[in-house]
Amino acid sequence: MKKLLVILIALALAGGGAYAYFSLSEPDPAKGPKTVAVSRGTIVEKALAMGEIVPRHEVAVKSKISGTVARLFVEDGDPVREGEPLLEVKPSPTPLEYAQAKRTLEMRLLVEEQRQADLERTKGLLERGMVSQSEYDRAREAFEQASLQRRLAEEELAILDKGKAVVAGRAVESLILSPVAGSILKLNVAVGDPVVPLTSYQPGTELLTMADMTDLLFKGTVDEIDVGKIREGMPVELKVGAFPDKLVQGVLSRISLKSQKKDNATVFEVEITQLEVPEGMVLRAGYSANADVVIRRAADVLLLPERVVEFRGDSTLVRLPPLALDATPEEKPIQVGMSDGISLEVKGGLQEGDVVLEKEVREIK
């Protein structure tokens, strides 16, 4: 019995040793070196532009008279035609302003009557030969100036009182009309808000902004590293932030000649037009977007992830899997072409399906 127990213990030790030997000697695929195969596909070299979608022309509507907003005829997003009423400004002069305008008109009327009397008297003297023609001309000029000043005072009072007048043959009124056809982007005032007029010495209150939303473009910037690779007329793929799964096609139409500083980087402004919007996609002013300017495109070429390629001087190398576990991986030079920052075009040294080693990941302790 004791002899049988000894034999069983010996067999168990031998089996455990054999299992340990084979488990250590056989490679574990999960713990082996990671590899990447050479594949075939399309690679595109691009230059990135970052910016937003904007209307080609955005119009700020202002008033030529002061007052308060009396009525609104439109709201945000409304489409309008050229000449359609947008809002009405009710004149609201102070009592002093109104009184001054009223008194100014009365004084201008008195001056005009006096100049008219002078002109009639001078005309009678001229007919009797008692004054010269030049004196009569001066009297007529003084009367005409007084008439002009009287009409100006009447127009000023009409604008303050009724909000409308005809100045130099042009109607000035409190009803603000749409200068162009388009859509209301933003209404900046409400009923009762004060309105400062647009004059030669003040910008005036911006009542609303509007634009033609059928004519949109992309405005953005390209880094100086890429600007030398692009030119007007290149095709562009736009990725709008609100539609991550859709692409908008366009054409690079303008590259600024002057750089600007943005976030401590030197960039150049670009514009992209001729936007081809997919069906069911509605672009809005202010959408953020990234634009990929297509510099070159190569289809049906051999590709490798750029991360597995090592650049050493003038050489481009990859590591091939070793034939044995304890062998050193072989380095092989290859020829590469285009890069999109993620993948590299393989022009020589490898065939489709060839396998190369991933780069070793070193742990930071």
Can you describe what's shown?
- The protein folds into 4 domains: 32-43 and 299-357, conserved putative lor/sdh protein from methanococcus maripaludis s2 fold, CATH 2.40.420; 47-56 and 213-297, Efflux pump adaptor protein, beta barrel domain (Elongation Factor Tu (Ef-tu), domain 3, Beta Barrel); 58-91 and 174-212, Beta Barrel (OB fold (Dihydrolipoamide Acetyltransferase, E2P)), CATH 2.40.50; 92-171, Helix Hairpins (Orthogonal Bundle).
- The chain is built from 4 helices and 23 strands.
- By secondary structure, it is α+β, with helices and mostly antiparallel strands.
- It starts with a helix and ends in an 8-residue tail after the last strand.
- The model is unreliable at 17-29 (pLDDT under 50).
- The strands form 6 sheets. Strands 2-13-16-15-14-17 form a 6-stranded antiparallel barrel.
Q: What's this, in brief?
A:
The protein is of the alpha+beta class. The chain is 25% helix and 40% strand.
- Number of DSSP strand runs: 23
Strand arrangement in the largest pleated sheet? 2-13-16-15-14-17
Main beta-sheet strand count, sense and barrel state: 6 strands, antiparallel, barrel
Low-confidence stretches: 17-29
What is the global morphology?
elongated
From the coordinates shown, what is the CATH architecture of the largest domain? Beta Barrel
Structural class per helix/strand content?
A: alpha+beta
Percent strand: 35-45%
Tally of separate helices: 4
Tell me the domain tally. 4
Rg for CA atoms: 42 Å
Instruction: Name the helix and strand elements from N-terminus to C-terminus, one letter apiece.
Output: HEEEEEEHHEEEEEEEHEEEEEEEEEE
CATH topology of the largest domain: Elongation Factor Tu (Ef-tu), domain 3
| CATH C-level category of the largest domain | Mainly Beta
CA(first)-CA(last) distance: 56 Å
Rounded mean pLDDT score: 82
Within CATH, the superfamily of the largest domain carries the name Efflux pump adaptor protein, beta barrel domain
Roughly what percent helix? 10-25%
